[in-house]
Design brief:
Layout (H helix, E strand, L loop, with lengths): L6 H9 L4 E5 L3 H14 L3 E6 H7 L1 H14 L4 E6 L4 H10 L3 E4 L6 H17 L3 E6 L9 H4 L6 H11 L3 E4 L16 H10 L4 E3 L7 H10 L3 E4 L1 H15 L7 H23 L5
Parallel strand pairs: 1-2, 1-8, 2-3, 4-5, 5-6, 6-7, 7-8
Helix pairs in contact: 2-4, 2-12, 5-6, 8-9, 11-12
Length: 280
């Protein structure tokens, strides 16, 4: 199976009451970990690449490795840019074979966000590539609670934005954040419900790492279509490697990387189980 856009994935998730896991990757080993978990859990996945990791690894390298993995997979796989910063980066990813892109201009004014997002949508849709955008600001989880919850998405404006841009998915700010939380997140469920009721396209929540399982279950049950998880997987990969390197003065690098893959795969399976527990 070749790489696919995420639009159909999210449509199926909405119809059958589960959530697609979007898992950050940046090299061959992290791709292998996520796709191995996908096979074990019999679930579609989105391989997503943070914008700076695209610059680090190269869109062409990442697309080639993801395509090899997708061709071996029994389940749908999408490769998507995460938090793309400008039109040119989105275009590069589309041109190199990504099947999804996110353009994140949430800190820009509404008109600029609409203008550039629409430009990305026009480019991507011509090549069958799905587009995600963001409205409302998603902060670092290390920020105080009052900062993290200061830029939440306005449901009415979100509904207008989705219509104005023709995006395939919308990332919203409802109380989750990126990274390790400085305190327990406080999720605005009434706001999320209103967004789900008003916005026509699938809804994405970022900041799924170290968010309590009960909160993840609640968001899945309410109907979010995609949950982004990065930090938990990267931390698991790193811990696996660290544990492997404690056994002696020298260890083959392959064994170190295999330990990282195994530990990340385990965490990824646990996340997919949470995201698919209500699947019909």
């Amino acid at each position: 199976m070749s790489l696919v856009p995420f639009t159909e994935m999210l449509r199926d998730a909405k119809e059958h009451h589960y959530t697609i896991g979007a898992f950050n990757i940046l090299n061959m080993e992290t791709i292998q970990a996520v796709l191995s978990a996908s096979e074990k859990m019999k679930a579609p996945v989105i391989l997503q690449v943070f914008h700076s990791h695209v610059d680090y690894a190269g869109a062409d390298y990442l697309a080639a490795m993801a395509a090899v993995g997708a061709n071996k997979s029994k389940y749908p796989v999408c490769l998507s840019l995460d938090h793309g910063q400008d039109f040119q980066q989105a275009k590069t990813c589309v041109d190199q074979g990504f099947t999804g892109v996110m353009i994140d201009l949430a800190t820009s004014n509404y008109d600029e966000n609409v203008r550039t997002t629409t430009k990305v949508v026009d480019l991507a849709h011509k090549k069958g590539v799905s587009v995600e955008a963001e409205l409302g600001q998603i902060f670092l989880a290390s920020c105080p609670l009052e900062v993290r919850n200061s830029g939440m998405t306005n449901p009415e404006i979100a509904a207008k934005f989705a219509k104005d841009t023709n995006i395939d998915a919308l990332a919203v700010s409802i109380g989750t954040a990126h990274g390790f939380y400085s305190s327990k997140p406080s999720i605005d469920y009434p706001r999320l419900k209103k967004i789900l009721d008003l916005v026509g396209c699938p809804i994405v929540v970022h900041g799924g790492s170290n968010t309590p399982d009960d909160d993840i279950r609640a968001m899945v049950k309410m109907g979010i279509s995609k949950l982004n998880i990065g930090t938990d997987l990267m931390a698991a990969f790193e811990k696996g490697m660290q544990d492997a390197m404690k056994v002696g003065e020298y260890i083959d690098i392959q064994e170190v990387l295999e330990a990282g893959i195994a530990n990340e795969e385990k965490v990824c399976c646990e996340k997919i189980k949470l995201l698919t527990m209500y699947k019909e």
